[in-house]
Amino acid sequence: MRSNISNNKGETALYIASFNSHSDIVELLLQSNSNPDICNKENETPLSRASYECHLCIVKSLLNNNSDVNFCNTNRETPLMRASCHGHIGIVKLLLEHNCDANIYNKDMETPLFRASCEGASCEGYSDIVKLLLEHNCDPNICNKENKSPLAMAALNGHIDVLKLLLKQNCDCCIYDDNNETPIFKASSRGYTDIVKLLLEHKCDPSLSNKDNETPLFKACSNGDTEIVKILLEHNCNPNVFDKDQESPLLKSAGGGYFEIVKLLFEYNSEPNTCNRNQESPFYRAAYNGHLDIVELLFENKCDQISLIENLKHHYFGHHGMDTKELLT
Predict the structure, then answer these.
(1) Core-most of 47, 53, 78, 191, by most CB within 10 Å?
(2) Residues 6+ apart with CB under 8 A from 38
(3) Residue 38: what pLDDT?
(4) What is the residue range of the signal peptide feature (predicted)?
(5) What are the respective helix, strand and coil percentages of the chain, to the nearest 5?
(6) Is 329 exposed, middle or buried (0-12, 13-18, 19+ CB in 10 A)?
(7) Using alpha carbons only, what angle is made at residue 306 by residues 302 and 310, rounded to the nearest 5 degrees?
(8) For residues 64, 66, 72 and 78, what is the CA-based torsion angle, rounded to 10 degrees?
(9) Distance between CA atoms of 210 and 221, rounded to whole angstroms?
């Protein structure tokens, strides 16, 4: 019939009406037996587009006329995926009531649950959508093609309410992605203290390193996040694990001027004299950046003066006006 004729973009009259929220026209076309599953050149059906645009009444009409609820576009995105990643909870609920498959993943192997765990601007994220998806047996342990899990993405984006829902499903909280980053590494990197605490309560291992041999403690020290550093040290994180460049948490915090973190690291037996690949010591970094209080603290904690003198032969830091002889006496 003529209502199924497409334009040069593959769009039927039903698709265009669904896109533009013309619900009366959609009803008229469906009553005239327009095919609801004719897709455009991007393999997108009227249902997919209406789900994306949050046109609830049109989605209802299309579903009542047997539109394929699991039809995927060229990116292998279902209508459920389109609605989930844009926070359209009413449409998500409607699609799930029509028995859509909640575990179909897109070309990047991302499920609707994965996308819902990523999105949202607040600490809640799209927790209502995540809850619905879990109630409809969406698998919380399906990872994307980079082996990132919904739990890891919730941790990365600070969505603590989503994280709580996922942890109730016994998600593997130590799973690491292609960069060897765990959920607690991501939370520590972003400064999400409450999420770090929650993951530790669920026995997430805080000692695992990423591909660059950076631990969660290393990232927290680099960022000057005193509270997270304290929490990780209390959970037996080793302060003497170095990254691929032989930089220690102490060297990073000394160079950054994070006095309280340096004090904490010494309380947990951090080694003060280890240099990185460029033969830079924690003392050198602190002195070069003008952190006199940390330089003095390093001396109090048995900084090796012989190594220090050798270090000074290789590096110049007088541009801060510090008197090296005075520091050594």
Answers:
(1) 47
(2) 4, 6, 12, 14, 15, 45
(3) 95
(4) none
(5) 50, 0, 50
(6) exposed
(7) 125
(8) 30
(9) 15
pLDDT of residue 316: 47
- Phi and psi for 136 in degrees, rounded to 5? -105, 30
Closest-CA residue to 142 (of 132, 152, 155):
152
253, 219 Cβ separation under 8 angstroms: no
The whole-number pLDDT of residue 320 equals 46
C-beta atoms surrounding 164 within 10 Å? 15
Q: How many Cα atoms within 13 Å fall on the side-chain side of residue 255?
A: 18
Q: Give the number of other Cβ atoms within 10 Å of residue 285's Cβ.
A: 26
Contact present, 47 and 68 (Cβ < 8 Å): yes
Q: 98: which residues sit within 8 A by CB, 6+ positions away?
A: 63, 69
Q: Which pLDDT belongs to residue 301?
A: 83
- Taking the C-alpha atoms of residue 99 and residue 80, their distance in angstroms, rounded to an integer, is 11
Q: Could you give the CA distance from residue 284 to residue 288 in angstroms, rounded to a whole number?
A: 6
3-class state of residue 32 by DSSP: coil
Contact (Cβ atoms closer than 8 angstroms) between residue 150 and residue 184 = no
The string of DSSP codes covering 186-247 is HHHHHT-HHHHHHHHHTT--TT---TT---HHHHHHHHT-HHHHHHHHHTT--TT---TT--
Question: What is the C-alpha to C-alpha distance for residues 129 and 174, in angstroms, rounded to an integer?
Answer: 24
